[in-house]
Fold:
Amino acid sequence: MEENLADGFAITDHNTISGHSKIKELLEQKKKVSLPFTEWSIPPITDNILCLNLKEYLSWESIDYHRPELLFHSLKEKGALVGIAHPFSYGHPFARGCRFDMTITDFNSFDFIEIFNNPEPLHQVNEPALLWWEDLVLKGFALSATCGMDLHGRWDMNNQYATFIEGVDGGNIEKELEDAIRHQKTWVSRGPILESQYNPQKQTILFTICDTKKPGFIHSDSDRYILILRSMTGTVVKEFPVCRSLELPLNELYLDSNPRSVLIPKLYQNDTAIENLVAVAPVIVPG
Structure:
């Protein structure tokens, strides 16, 4: 990846934070931001747990596979945000340790799920992760969505999913990322992002497609864009007009007359096959 395409980088080493100080010093020379990430790989099963802002090493040797929340809580006590990486990756015997096989009973004990791990198969690995995240969010768990490249070399990032957050020029990217994950304000997109604005007076939501200028996104001016909104009451499908903005009344977004659950907005290109999913937007909680 060309260094001018990103404001910050992270070395997400397995089971160590020793590289954080080294990459921070290197990036400061290039006027880039170092983001403190770690990935816990716990033998013998080696489930993958992502940590943001873990600045103090924490031993994992006492992990209980049937109570991973014990480790999650310990990490959070150190100020870290906890996420699950590629939960449906192929496991033994193809890729031992990549699949998340721990038994979770407290879904409030972690903060985010990696819904796309770009190099992995779409239907077998990434789509189940996306649907798992959606199901948990609709049940009321405040989990953000992220994605990753799992880079182990120089790989092509064109038309791949990336995680987007809101920020300001000259802002603290590390703090902005932390706030975005804590408050479910992350976008996952291959190109444009889908913004939403709730109007309590009119009881409408305005959806707008915004260009991020992300390199490598494959599209044309004639493409159709389709909005899918999933709630506990069902799924609503709407097509965007040419202007790329769409204002919808709440009573069109739910399949019953009493809007009460969160909405998960997703943007598709040309049709609603999973291969054409462009962006997953932050959840909406009307009112």
